[in-house]
TrEMBL record:
InterPro entries to which the protein is assigned, alphabetical: Terpenoid_cyclase/PrenylTrfase (IPR008930)
Protein name: Squalene cyclase C-terminal domain-containing protein
Lineage, highest ranks first: Bacteria, Bacillati, Bacillota, Bacilli, Bacillales
Naturally occurring in which organism (per UniProt): Paenibacillus silvae
Length: 275
């Protein structure tokens, strides 16, 4: 069917939480970004960290890395400036590092509802958080240095090349593609893009959405590197897969993720001139 923004709006407002409604309003209805900031700040704690179920899979109210990682992923996906709401957050990250540069999770993490795949612990990898803080222009030199040490052991060329799960390519993507394109960094940047393209070749239809987390608009490096016919195939699928209820399905069939999925899919289609 023809894409309907009205039906998408109905789906997001019927099923999304307040910040998702504010995000839709900002992106598609001329809403205020200050209103979006107000909604997001409800998930920020006094210590500068983030929690309270901002990332839907972990409901712990105490500050933990996954909530911040998701907020920064939102900034990446939607091209949002988040510096206004991130005051004090870099300090929180610096205070919650282990000696090897990995990130600490609160002891209370599993006291609250959480998805089964987080039962063994929360997010401890600092790569995506650090990379996206660089993208926002607020990463500290201390955090950049400790993450640089961490990636030498955990995100080497061999690690990048061995990845075969498209979704997990975000670790290398969010870190290396936010570094300066120097001769030292270029092999890692190129390996990351090559790995994403390799994974794309083997992806299934239910994972097409994930491709655009790396190619949200035509000006991204991954989109430029992807064969046009292949990119058009994935865009055609997004364009034709809006449901009658106005939403788009997600990889795992989890309805609580579908309002965000729907907002991002609409934005991708607009970025590529498909609306």
């Amino acid at each position: 069917m023809q894409i309907s923004i009205d039906k998408a709006r109905d789906f997001v407002y019927a099923n999304g939480v307040l910040w998702e409604q504010a995000l839709f309003h900002y992106l598609f209805d001329g809403g205020s970004i200050e209103r979006l900031y107000q909604c997001l700040l409800c998930y920020k704690n006094a210590d500068g960290g983030w929690g309270h179920g901002l990332e839907h899979d972990i409901k712990c109210p105490d500050s933990h890395p996954l909530a911040l990682e998701f907020l920064l992923t939102m900034g990446r996906d939607m091209k949002l400036s988040l510096t206004e709401v991130l005051i004090g957050t870099v300090d929180w990250v610096e205070r919650n590092r282990n000696e090897d540069g990995s990130l600490k999770n609160p002891a209370s993490l599993h006291k609250y509802p959480h998805a089964s795949w987080w039962s063994n612990g929360g997010q401890s990898a600092p790569d995506s958080i650090t990379g996206n803080l660089m993208k926002q222009g607020i990463c500290s030199s201390s955090l950049a240095a400790s993450t640089s040490r961490w990636v030498k052991s955990n995100l080497s060329l061999e690690h990048i090349q061995a990845n075969d799960w498209l979704f997990m390519a975000y670790h290398a993507h969010d870190y290396y593609l936010n570094l300066e394109d120097t001769p030292e960094n270029r092999p890692f940047i190129e390996a990351t893009i090559d790995n994403i393209l390799k994974c794309v070749q083997n992806t299934t239809e239910k994972n097409y959405f994930t491709i655009f987390q790396f190619a949200s608009s035509p000006d991204t490096r991954v989109a430029k590197a992807m064969p046009k016919a292949l990119l058009d195939k994935f865009l055609d699928d997004l364009e034709s897969s809006q449901r009658e209820d106005g939403g788009w399905g997600d990889e795992h069939g989890l309805k609580h993720w579908q309002p965000y999925h729907t907002i991002f899919t609409l934005l991708v289609l607009r970025n590529y001139g498909r609306l």
